[in-house]
Amino acid sequence: MALKLTDPFWQTIGLGTLAGMRAMSAPAITSHILSHHHSNKLEGGPLNLMQSEKVAMVLKVLAVGEFLGDKLPSAPNRINPIGLTGRFLSGALAGASIYKASGNNAMTGALIGGTTAAASTFVSFFIRKNTVKRTTILDPVIGMIEDALVAASGATLVTAA
User: Fold this and answer.
1) E strand or H helix at 62, and its extent?
2) How many whole angstroms separate alpha carbon 17 and alpha carbon 1?
3) Going by fewer Cβ within 10 Å, which terminus of the chain is more open, N or C?
4) Residue 70 and residue 137: Cα distance in Å, rounded?
5) Residue 16 and residue 128: Cα distance in Å, rounded?
6) Widest Cα–Cα separation across the chain
7) What pTM, to 2 d.p., does this model score?
């Protein structure tokens, strides 16, 4: 089935937002979309890998692992330099893939996705921390709510493609 992206800008914004919340979610969702809706615009380039069903499956497994690992007390803050860089790169990969697949400039998509991911990293971090501080809800429970939001938003992005 051919890929029909009516507005790659907003899809990239959505993927970047999810990358800021859960780093592996954006590449997993992007690869899922592209593995079901191949784009000949990715063929012959490094982003073609995102169209592989095997890559999509590996990324989904990593995303589930991140959902589980996020609840551990030893999980680092997402705003630490390594976490922030990973989320930026995750959003950049998703954005570049979507933009290139839709016939647009991959670098533009990477910048939009990465920048959105970086902003979302800080926003989601402070929302989560303030929610825990102002309520009696435990951090892992807030994390599970965040997971549900990421999963539901990802499903919406998949069905919109």
Assistant:
1) helix 53-69
2) 27
3) N
4) 16
5) 18
6) 52
7) 0.92
Torsion of CA 122, 158, 91, 54, to 10 degrees: 130
Which position has the higher pLDDT, 1 or 98? 98
Residue for token pair 């976490």: 83
What span, in angstroms and rounded, lies between the C-alpha atoms of 26 and 117? 9
Tens-place pLDDT, residues 67-119? 998 888 888 889 999 999 999 999 999 999 999 999 999 999 999 999 999 99
The CA angle 122-128-134, to the nearest 5 degrees, is: 130
The C-alpha atoms of residue 8 and residue 97 are separated, in whole angstroms, by 10
pLDDT tens track for 33-53:
999 989 999 999 999 999 999
The C-alpha atoms of residue 63 and residue 43 are separated, in whole angstroms, by: 25
**Distance in angstroms (rounded) separating the CA atoms of residues 39 and 97:** 10
Task: Give the burial string for 88-114 (b: 16+ CB within 10 Å, else e).
Answer: bbbbbbbbbbbbbbbebebebbbbbbb
**Residue that is written with structure tokens 């860089």 in the block:** 85
